[in-house]
């Protein structure tokens, strides 16, 4: 059976007919989503890149070198802070005296091109989306901008909701989603999608009323509305709820 024709009216004129198979796009489907929030780390670039482990190692190193926390205590503290506060940074802010900007600059001081490269398929899919797209990350805006620049996808995002814009919260705190919606100028969460690689975030987004997509997983186990493992699947997921 041949694939049905693509409804080109759902997509901007720069959409490439050869970048996304039409079998992945529901034909003549009403678009109801207006906004997509994309996580950054381990979502917009492959988890296998090694970048996120490198950043986590620098978090630990900062705690040892700059904060003089005993090396043997660091792994347990980072796990505790992630579990109780959402991120290592929020735990350090709550329990220690930490220079937030110094911490963020130190942690993200890595050569990104050693880990990540542009993905033409990802670029084509992002270019095809009729939604307004935002980065929503627990990292800072400078790191996000650097990642987007290396991946060559800056033009596809309207704004960046970073950890400083949702202070004192972070994902998956419910308050962080309210702040992200405010930045996007969107009052109705059901018109929004959250794409993230962490089940805790997609579960929280779903509870907040957003349509949540768990990235890099085959099954959601109830933690999301859908899963995504291939960028070519995204246009169909964006349109599916309206079909």
Name of the CATH first level of the largest domain: Alpha Beta
Order of helices and strands: EHHHHHEHEHEHEEH
Strand order in the sheet with the most strands: 3-2-1-4-5-6
Low-confidence stretches: 1-29
Q: Care to count the β-strands?
A: 6
Give the number of helices: 9
Roughly how much helix do the residues carry, as a percent range?
Answer: 25-40%
What is the name of the CATH topology of the largest domain?
Rossmann fold
Task: Report the principal-axis shape.
Answer: globular
CATH homologous superfamily name of the largest domain? HAD superfamily/HAD-like
- Tell me what the CATH architecture of the largest domain is: 3-Layer(aba) Sandwich
Question: How far from one another are the termini?
Answer: 21 Å
Tell me the domain tally: 2
How does the helix and strand content classify structurally? alpha/beta
**Mean model confidence by pLDDT:** 89
Strand content: 5-15%
Radius of gyration over all CA atoms, rounded: 19 Å
Assembly state: single chain
Sheet having the most strands = 6 strands, parallel
Question: Could you characterize what this model shows?
Answer:
The protein is of the alpha/beta class and 243 residues long. It has two domains: 8-46 and 116-240, HAD superfamily/HAD-like (Rossmann fold); 49-112, DNA polymerase, domain 1. It is built from nine helices and six strands. It has helices at 51-65, 74-85, 88-95, 100-107, 120-128, 141-151, 174-184, 199-207, 234-240, and strands at 35-38, 132-136, 159-161, 192-196, 211-215, 226-228. A six-stranded parallel β-sheet has the order 3-2-1-4-5-6, with helices on both faces. The longest helix has 15 residues, at 51-65. The radius of gyration is 19 Å and the shape is globular. The chain starts with 34 loop residues before the first strand and ends with a helix. The model is unreliable at 1-29 (pLDDT under 50).
């Amino acid at each position: 059976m041949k694939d049905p024709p693509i409804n080109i009216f759902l997509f901007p004129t720069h959409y490439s007919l050869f970048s996304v198979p039409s079998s992945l796009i529901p034909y003549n489907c009403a678009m109801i989503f207006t906004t997509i929030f994309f996580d950054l780390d381990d979502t917009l670039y492959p988890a296998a890149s090694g970048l996120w482990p490198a950043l986590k190692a620098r978090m630990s190193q900062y705690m040892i070198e700059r904060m003089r926390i005993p090396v043997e205590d660091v792994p347990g503290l980072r796990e505790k802070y992630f579990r109780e506060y959402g991120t290592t940074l929020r735990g350090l802010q709550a329990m220690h005296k930490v220079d937030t900007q110094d911490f963020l600059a130190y942690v993200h001081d890595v050569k990104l091109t050693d880990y990540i490269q542009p993905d033409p398929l990802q670029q084509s899919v992002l270019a095809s989306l009729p939604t307004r797209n935002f980065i929503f990350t627990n990292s800072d805006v400078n790191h996000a901008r650097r990642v987007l620049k290396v991946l060559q996808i800056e033009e596809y995002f309207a704004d960046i909701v970073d950890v400083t814009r949702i202070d004192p919260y972070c994902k998956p705190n419910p308050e962080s989603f309210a702040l992200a919606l405010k930045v996007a100028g969107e009052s109705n969460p059901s018109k929004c999608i959250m794409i993230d690689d962490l089940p805790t975030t997609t579960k929280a987004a779903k509870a907040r009323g957003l349509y949540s997509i768990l990235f890099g997983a085959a099954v959601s186990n109830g933690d999301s509305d859908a899963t995504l493992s291939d960028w070519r699947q995204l246009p169909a997921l964006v349109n599916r709820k309206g079909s």
